[in-house]
Each structure stands twice: as structure tokens, then as C-alpha cells.
TrEMBL record, chains A, B:
This is NTF2 domain-containing protein. It is found in: Cytoplasm; Nucleus; Nucleus envelope. Interacts with RAN1. Residues 8-122 form the NTF2 domain. It comes from Nyssa sinensis. Its main location: cytoplasm. The keyword Nucleotide-binding does not apply. Keywords: Cytoplasm, Nucleus, Protein transport, Transport.
Amino acid sequence: MEEQVELVGRAFVDHFYHLFDNDRSSLSSLYQPTSMLTFEGQKIQGVDEISTKLNQLPFDQCQHVISTIDSQPSSFTGGIMVFVSGSLQLAGEEHSLRFSQMFHLIPTPQGSYFVQNDIFRLNYG
Amino acid sequence: MEEQVELVGRAFVDHFYHLFDNDRSSLSSLYQPTSMLTFEGQKIQGVDEISTKLNQLPFDQCQHVISTIDSQPSSFTGGIMVFVSGSLQLAGEEHSLRFSQMFHLIPTPQGSYFVQNDIFRLNYG
């Protein structure tokens, strides 16, 4: 059970940031109408609004490098909590930005997961 | 609803770090036997084990300074997700340590909340 949670957490993180860095518009497939995103303190709800926000971020090409992934089962929902730390390299910028992000993944009837809760913060030194 | 979630998140954060900095052994009141803590990658389960871990951390006096608190409702559980960033000042140390921490709070029958999921990470620059 513990191992399964770790594996799902890592697979999700790989998938999420691969889409973010290579095909950002496809991230909408990971959210649903109930999903919530808090991005640097800004609250956004629903797959359409979240997709719009992610596609309108003021940078085009970027690369996420993951430092840590911590996953725990989410009791009462059959879901998974995933906590990520890493750095974000923007194209043309010299320095990368440290970030932390958490996801609450909820199982779908199709045997996959969607993102119900997503909170993102840059870490200022 | 949104406002209530913000208020509960902030009140919890104030309470949690006040206890951590002033009466660390009392933190056990916030966890239950089902609770999970991942502390710098180390997984700990259950109120007794979590309490032991927190009380045996290799520093005595400390002060948490909170930078950001982001809260969202946790659908399906009636709970709250809380994401915190801040810095940790250890007594006798010159520099403070940046950290991020997330909590999944679940309502109790008594109308309060307990910590079901707790993930803590120091942010290295």
C-alpha cells in the first residue's frame, strides 16, 4: 500500500511536469470542474479557469527539475497527497526559481486520478 | 465558505506553531492514531510515534516565522488543506531555515479538526 502510493505519486509528478514543460495545454486533462488551484496566493476554481491560468502564465518555455517527492495516502477519499519541491528554469533566464507544490489526487471511476487540490508557491530566499 | 476555510486555516497555523515553539509536547493533541507525518522524507504514523519524533528533534528552542498560508476546502472529507511557507529560527543559530509544510485537517465529532496528513520539508537554496 505504502509502496503503491509512492509509485503513483512519482508517476503523477513525472507526468504532470512533463506535460507542463512540453505540452502545457494538455494539463487540463488532469483537472475536473471541482478542482481548485491556488497559484502564488491567487485562487482559481474549475478545469477551464485553471487551464486558462496555466496557459497564460507570463513565461513560455520552462523546465521543472524535481528535488523531492513525498506521498501519503489520503484517508476517507482513497486518494493521494503529493508534496513536491524543485526548481523552475525559465527559458532565457540565468537563475532558476525554487518552488513547492502540493496536489490532492482523487481516484476517477476509470481507475486513474485527477487533481482536486493544487497549491503552488515560489520559495523566496 | 471560502472565508471560513481561510479563517480556520490561519487559526490552525497560529495554534500549531505557537505550540511547537512554546509547548511542543502539546502538539500530540492535534494528531490521532491514523495521522501520518513525513518529516524530511521520514515517514511516521500514529499520534504516539509523531509526538515522539517531534519531541526528539535535534533542537530545543525554536521560532517559526510564517510567510504564506494557503487554504482550500478538502472535498469529500469536509476537511481543509493548508499549505504553509516560512522560516525556522533555531536558538543560538545565526541563520534561519526556510521550510514548507502541508496539513490535511479532518473535522472531529467535537467540531474541531485534527491533522490527518502532515508533510514537512526544509527548502534548500
